[in-house]
Specification:
α4 runs antiparallel to α5, α5 packs across α14 and α14 crosses α16. About 80% of the residues lie in helices and about 0% in strands. With about 550 residues, the protein is mainly alpha-helical. It has 2 domains: about 300 residues, no CATH class; about 210 residues, Phosphate transport system protein phou homolog 2, domain 2 (Methane Monooxygenase Hydroxylase, Chain G, domain 1, Up-down Bundle).
């Protein structure tokens, strides 16, 4: 076989590895879905748990970048603290070595078995979750097959003196080996793939162990360079976390260069196989660095706080946490949208209370209500645009149903706020003429409706905040009672009109008030059904 064929074996192998990591990772992420986010939220309790969680999640989804993006979203959303996120991030670095360990085991002979099982499961499965498991198995088969092609191509070329001389030219000094590892990692944006390449080069004897270890140091440093731009423009926790990531790998690089001889000796006794030694070196680097780094976390956070642009005051606009960087991780971005819906529901509650005070306490709050309604309009537009961008991602069915539910709920909140504003404007208009005043009996009837609507609004806030289907069902029950109350009030109003106890103008206003209050109740009801339907769909999956 000619050198050009060997070259394509290497590039084709790397391509299969890259795609295999992507395919298996993305499907495992869909299978686990919001469980990943729940695991991260619970990892806040202590450093050991955080380290273990970050390792496990990244080992499963093959992407420390995805784990870091999820952390950014949880910090921005207030679900995690920066100190709590750091151990998880360090664990993600350890988990990213999982693919390297697989490569060192030389299990490429199982590639076709994984491919067969994956394809059969994908084409025969009825449930989407089983289809995704099949796709994940296919991804693993590509990963194993790519390793075999890579090993075959490099092993064949390792017998070519020109190839060996070229490799040695690039790794003829510790600095050049470190730079080579860092540069290739930045270009391919996959530390796992490049570390697999280094394992293969070492296993075939194309480079010596020392050069491979220096490249591993460069690969780890290069994985941080991917987030340099984020750190430079970071005016929030995402920038701080990225900066800490860079400090971590800079610290690790200096530490292992200072004790390189001991590091090499540790690696040599870990296995008799060169490929395994290099894979172990990748794991040892991240594990040892994390153990040394964690005790200095408070000091490092203080240092980052001092040098970070986040030290400056930041204007937090409505829905500032709907960060486009989180869209690629749907479970996190959907949590942020849900946070926005809760905020919108709270504004709606404030509008409802202010509206009631215009009528019953003669307060001048119409401008305040109008301003809040404008905020709701802007928040609706912003969250809708954000959800459209999320919808363009490859979503799991539960995430898709959650997204559709949220789109519906956001629209319902906007509509009910429109009706609250309409009621408020009617109350304001009634203050300007005695002919439009309502009787005390009529006001008492409206108090009963406002009371029920207030209960429903609180249940909406809690059910959205807690994702609670029981509370959503309570909203539906209350809405039925609101309909009964309004029907009874309408009958009483008709009698008052017949008896001449109400002016025609006041009667017209009263009818419009009842209509708008009934529509507000209907929108609460629609929100409740959107939440309930989401749970029903999730139970079928």
């Amino acid at each position: 076989m000619s050198e050009i064929n060997f070259f394509f074996e290497i590039t084709g192998g790397l391509s299969l590895i890259l795609y295999g990591i992507h395919l298996s990772g993305i499907n495992l992420q869909k299978i686990l879905g919001s469980k990943l986010e729940d695991m991260l939220k619970k990892s806040n309790r202590n450093s050991v748990r955080g380290l273990a969680t970050g390792t496990a999640i990244t080992g499963m989804i093959h992407s420390s970048g995805t784990t870091t993006v999820m952390l950014i979203g949880l910090i921005t959303g207030g679900f995690m603290t920066l100190p709590g996120a750091i151990p998880v991030m360090l664990g993600a670095n350890i988990g990213s070595t999982f693919a390297t360990q697989l490569a060192s085991l030389r299990i490429g002979s199982y590639a076709l078995a994984f491919l067969t099982a994956g394809v059969l499961m994908h084409i025969s499965a009825e449930k989407k979750i089983n289809k995704r498991i099949g796709e994940a198995l296919v991804g693993f088969s590509f990963l194993f097959l790519g390793m075999e092609f890579l090993y075959s191509g490099i092993d064949s070329l390792s017998k070519n003196p020109l190839f060996l001389e070229t490799i040695k030219l690039f790794v003829n000094s510790p600095l050049s080996a470190i730079l080579l590892g860092a540069i290739i990692t930045v270009l391919l944006r996959s530390a796992s793939t490049i570390s697999i390449l280094v394992v293969t080069l070492g296993a075939t004897g194309s480079i010596d162990l020392s050069s491979a270890l220096y490249m591993i140091l460069g690969i780890n440093f290069g994985s941080s360079l991917k987030v340099v731009s984020l750190a430079l423009r970071g005016k929030n926790f995402s920038g701080k976390l990225a900066l800490i990531h860079i400090l971590f790998n800079s610290f690790g690089l200096v530490l292992f260069l200072a004790f390189f001889g001991y590091f090499e000796s540790l690696v040599q006794v870990s296995s008799i196989d060169t490929g395994r030694q290099i894979a172990n070196a990748h794991t040892f680097y991240n594990l040892i660095s994390a153990i040394f780094f964690i005790p200095f976390t408070p000091l490092i956070i203080r240092f980052v706080e001092k040098i970070s642009p986040a030290n400056k005051s930041i204007k937090k606009t409505d829905l500032f946490y709907l960060d486009k960087k989180l869209i690629c991780t749907p479970s996190v971005s959907l949590s942020q949208v849900n946070r926005g819906m809760v905020e919108m529901a709270k504004i709606a509650y404030e509008m409802l209370e202010s509206s009631k005070m215009i009528l019953f306490k003669n307060r001048d709050l119409i401008k305040n209500i109008q301003q809040r309604e404008n905020r709701i309009d802007n928040m609706t537009e912003k969250s809708s645009e954000y959800m459209v961008q999320i919808s363009q991602q490859n979503l799991s069915r539960p995430d898709m149903m959650k997204l559709y539910s949220m789109m519906h709920i956001v629209a319902e909140i906007e509509h009910l706020c429109d009706h609250i504003l309409d009621v408020s404007e009617i109350f304001e208009a009634m203050k300007k003429s005695k002919d439009r005043n309502l009787s005390e009996k009529a006001k008492g009837e409206l108090i009963a409706v406002f009371g029920k609507l207030g209960i429903m609004q609180n249940l909406v806030i809690k059910s959205l905040d807690e994702d609670n289907v029981k509370l959503a069902n309570e909203i539906i029950q209350h809405e039925n009672k609101v309909d009964e109350i309004i029907k009874k009030i309408s009958n009483n109003h008709a009698l008052r009109m017949q008896e001449g106890n109400c002016t025609e103008e006041a009667g017209q206003y009263f009818s419009e008030i009842l209509y708008n209050l009934e529509r507000i109740g209907d929108h609460y009801d629609n929100i409740a059904y959107a939440i309930v339907d989401r749970f029903k769909h999730n139970e079928r999956i």
